[in-house]
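Quiz preparation item.
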């Protein structure tokens, strides 16, 4: 009997050891920071309409892949809100130093729906003992921490119509209009209660809903929350609805645009001559928080970026000018990713950008390899 137990125990230990090794290798693989993974991913998805890439270097089209294809932007769309904020600050419509009580953001916050972004922003504020912050810090948190609550609050303060007017100013006609991001999360719960549907019926109704109604519902919910915020219990109920099927619908219905649209926007940001100096006075501190890093200050004249992600999406829009005067704009949008792809792209994107900006050989090889059929 002891022998049998010993054999069974040995088998179990071996099995656990093998699983541990497999898990360790998996963790190591997804956490690997590898710019070549981005290159290979682009090459393998050249025919995939769910992947769009546009890169410009010194006004030259360096990489172009499905650049006209509209794809979900996720948080990259917050660039538009940042521009609207800076324009209104420059015009004197808003005061960036106006204090915002952190409680004013709570109606637009549903816990565990933004990857911990809002919590992270609040955490660094709590360390400083803050209960209120300047409006400028709300904008900073929207870009640096990607807080969805801050984004929807700014839409409320700036006015959604004004935010969408920015799209007209920028002449990005294919860009879908913005709508409140967080409010859309509540649409399934609203629909279920309104029509007395089962969860399965709600999912079907949500998939069948046209975008006009979807945006209108999101806006109505947003406006209602200003007057009558959800209780903690109601927020918990909305969160409970969000299984992966509902998350996929939410992700697929996020505001869409093309990398061609965003290269155009990035060029305007990078040139420093499209927007007025007054606008850049408020826009650059929000968009270019990368420049707070002393190491970036050593070799970059300016640089800004905004990325976005869901369980299925990864996006990035970035621009930079180095101290030699070289200008780069990068727009990378990918949809319908599996978990491994999403994580590996996310972990490798920073090193890919850095290598493109600093390695001439890498730039030339990238252009050559991606232009080949």
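Solution:
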């Amino acid at each position: 009997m002891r022998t049998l137990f010993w054999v069974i125990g040995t088998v179990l230990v071996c099995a656990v050891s093998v699983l541990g090794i497999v898990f360790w290798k998996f963790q190591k693989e997804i956490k690997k920071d590898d710019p070549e993974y981005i290159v290979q991913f682009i090459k393998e998805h050249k025919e995939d309409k769910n992947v769009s890439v546009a890169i410009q270097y010194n006004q030259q089209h360096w990489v172009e892949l499905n650049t006209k294809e509209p794809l979900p932007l996720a948080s990259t769309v917050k660039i538009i809100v940042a521009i609207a904020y800076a324009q209104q600050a420059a015009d004197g419509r808003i005061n960036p130093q106006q204090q915002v009580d952190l409680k004013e953001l709570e109606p637009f916050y549903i816990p565990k729906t933004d990857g911990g972004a809002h919590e992270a922003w609040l955490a660094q504020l709590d360390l400083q003992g803050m209960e209120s912050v300047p409006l400028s810090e709300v904008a900073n948190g929207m870009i640096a921490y990607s807080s969805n609550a801050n984004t929807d609050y700014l839409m409320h303060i700036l006015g959604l119509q004004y935010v969408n007017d920015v799209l007209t100013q920028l002449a990005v006609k294919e860009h879908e209009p913005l709508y409140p991001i967080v409010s859309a999360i509540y649409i399934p719960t609203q629909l279920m209660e309104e029509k007395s549907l089962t969860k399965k019926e709600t999912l079907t109704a949500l998939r069948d809903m046209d975008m006009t109604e979807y945006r209108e519902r999101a806006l109505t919910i947003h406006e209602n929350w200003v007057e009558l915020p959800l209780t903690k219990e109601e927020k918990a109920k909305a969160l409970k609805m969000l299984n992966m099927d509902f998350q996929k619908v939410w992700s697929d219905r996020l505001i869409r645009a093309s990398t061609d649209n965003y290269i155009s926007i990035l060029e305007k940001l990078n040139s420093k001559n499209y927007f007025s100096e007054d606008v850049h006075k408020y826009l650059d501190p929000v968009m270019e928080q990368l420049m707070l890093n002393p190491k970036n200050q050593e070799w970059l004249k300016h640089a800004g970026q905004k990325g976005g992600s869901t369980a299925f999406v990864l996006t990035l829009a970035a621009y930079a000018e180095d101290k030699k005067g070289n200008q780069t704009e990068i727009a990378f949008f990918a949809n319908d990713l599996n978990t491994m792809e999403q994580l590996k792209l996310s972990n490798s994107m920073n090193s890919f950008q850095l290598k493109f900006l600093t390695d001439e050989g890498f730039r030339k090889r990238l252009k050559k390899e991606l232009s080949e059929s």
